[in-house]
Write a structure and sequence with these properties.
The complex is a heterodimer of chains A (232) and B (149). With 232 residues, chain A is mainly alpha-helical. In chain A, 75% of the residues lie in helices and 0% in strands. Chain A is built from eight helices and no strands. Chain B is elongated. Chain B is an all-alpha fold and 149 residues long. The chains are: A mainly alpha (232), B mainly alpha (149). At the A-B interface, α3, α5 and α8 of A face α1, α2 and α3 of B.
Chain lengths: 232, 149
Amino acid sequence: MATETAPAPTETEAEHDPRPEHLEHHFVSSEQQFDSAKLGMWVFLITEVLLFSGMFVAYAVFRQWNPDVFAAASGTLNQTMGALNTVVLLTSSLTVAFSIHAIKQDKVKQCIYYLLGTLGLAGGFMVVKYFEYTAKFEHGVFPGGAFDPHGAHYEHLADMAMAPQFFSIYFVMTGIHGVHVVIGMIVIGALAIMAWRGSFSSEWYTPVELTGLYWHLVDIVWIFLFPLLYLI
Amino acid sequence: MAHDGPHIVPKSVLLKVFGALIVLTGLTVGVAYVPLGPLTVPVALGIAGMKATLVVLFFMHLKYDNPVNALTFTIGTIFVLVFVTITLLDTAFRGDLGNVNAQTVQEIQAEEERAQQRQDAIPADSLRIAPSDYPDQNRGASMESDGGS
């Protein structure tokens, strides 16, 4: 009896479960491995949300204490550039979604193009940010103690005791968001190279999916930053 | 694999979501020029929340995903709301710390009560003064003439 049943499972195992190269030995299936990676990414994204929420709370508290100063200081930000960056980032979210759409259908070339498109849009976002920052620095609008506004557009802020507070919050929030964009650009660039080397297929594209999630979160943070800092 | 390839969100859905996001961006810029008074912040946050929900459900695939991911994200979001609300409950209702009184509330109330009692005991009407109340009506004038001599 034992001799009869013993060879059977090994035979079916060899037939039905040729473990794919990407499947780690501690996972039952590719699907389980993918779901675990994704859950891990969502937990990481929540820590990111909480990191930014600390800054959003600082914004809320100081805005509630000094509504007039925040309105005046927010009025000096360039709304056109902020709106432009919102559209750029939303479009980059779409291209990342398209790159995942492509790799799920084994369209590696398309996936690479969409990743490079995302990289370009992210670069565009940083260029706009650079022009915004330098326009502020030229007029002495620095965070915290270095705050020394001059020029017609910023002069009226010099008399407001809490105006430097607004710009500290502005520079820290957009700065840390910008760091996230740069990190995203590095990872997306690496993904494009990996895709070009043929690392991804519809069978295994976990890094593309997880980077996509990260990139969408960076987009969501900006969705909240834009109206709160630039518009109201 | 246990399933027939990965779930794919159709490109048309992604494009529609993107269109909605652009429209909502235009809307949030537009309402910024409308004086809404106290509704400004709730409206801006409402539109941003709608945009974030669209991104999370469709771009981040949460609508079609394993529900445990949605649970993780929802719990995290609830904690953000708790964080903001409890902090603002403190900072928004602190009052003016530079305007403190050395007396306790009971002492202030007792003092006000005593003042009220004094007012009741001597009515304001009884303190009214008219020229006829002066016993010697020429006294002022005579004093002036005294000073002149």
